[in-house]
Amino acid sequence: DLNSLRGRLEGRYKESDWALSGSKVELLVADGTRVAPTDFQAAWKQDGQSGRITGSAGASFVDFAVLRKLAAYMPLDPRSRELLEQYGPEGRVSELRAGWSRLGDGLERYALKANFSDLGVLAGGYFPGAKGLSGMVEFSEKGGSLTLDAGHSSISLPAVFPEPDIAFDQLRARANWKVAGEVVDVKLERLQFESADAAGAASGSYRYTGEGPGVIDLAASISRADGRAVWRYLPHAVNADARDWVRKGIIAGKAHDAKLALKGNLADFPFRDPGKGKFLITAKATDATVDYV
After folding, report:
1. How far apart are CA 75 and CA 77, in angstroms?
2. Is the pLDDT of residue 293 over 70?
3. Model confidence over 218-265: pLDDT tens digits?
């Protein structure tokens, strides 16, 4: 139900093959949803014999909140609608280019490149969540790269931390990754962050082979930190009893000029055998109070 539509549209439609493109298109839906002037193209096709689905999309500007509302009027397959609801994307994307092919429930190929601002997505399983992120991303099934430059924002890492949500006042990062079968290699070129709990920088690498928690080589420096928040940043590899002791035991204190080194197979954490890895934290503390009971 459109109140108004402006711009140039071209398209074709069959039951299992459709394409649509537009130039300087803006529209207003009866429920008040408005699409600002944008150029776009989208195509979707399903092979009648194999069931394979291929698609592509591009746009000069996309508002995910608007897209989710308009999805009810688009001829999407049930799985695509499910993913849209499952991850609930929000925020704005510019210079978007994407393509994919899917057979059954699994993606065979995919590629995406875009700039983004105030981006948000819900976490699910190993898939991280985020809110308020700005930057650039480019990836495919073979790997990708990510640049972040955000103000007030947050990330959610349920696969890494029992307390998954981490809020930031400033977040800047640059990372890239490669995928070969089940092996994923991630390189964190730089990370700079500021939050209510801490401020610092980090760099390192991580490898996941398809088995176990993976192998990490991480170095971080902390210019300031609130000791009462340390327990929130202990990963799943730290057992619940130890995490609970840190939460209750550190009842006051601030740290500065802190260093963290974490290197080795996380299955061997906390590396009681020095030959298997390294986990070292050094810091200068002030006004620290620890309850050992």
Report:
1. 7
2. no
3. 999 999 988 888 888 788 878 788 888 888 888 888 888 889 899 999
Rg (CA), the chain: 23
How is residue 13 written in tokens?
């439609």
Task: State the Cα angle at 103 between 102 and 106, rounded to 5°.
Answer: 70
Are 230 and 246 contacting, i.e. CB atoms less than 8 angstroms apart?
A: yes
Taken as a whole, the chain contains a residue count of 293
This prediction has a pTM of 0.74
Long-range contacts of the stretch 206-211 (C-beta < 8 A, 24+): 207/183, 208/182, 208/183, 208/184, 209/182, 209/183, 210/181, 210/182, 210/183
Contacts of residue 285, Cβ cutoff 8 Å, sequence gap at least 6: 227, 253, 254, 255
| Structure tokens that stand for 190 in this block | 């730089």
Q: Encoding tokens for residue 34?
A: 């408005």
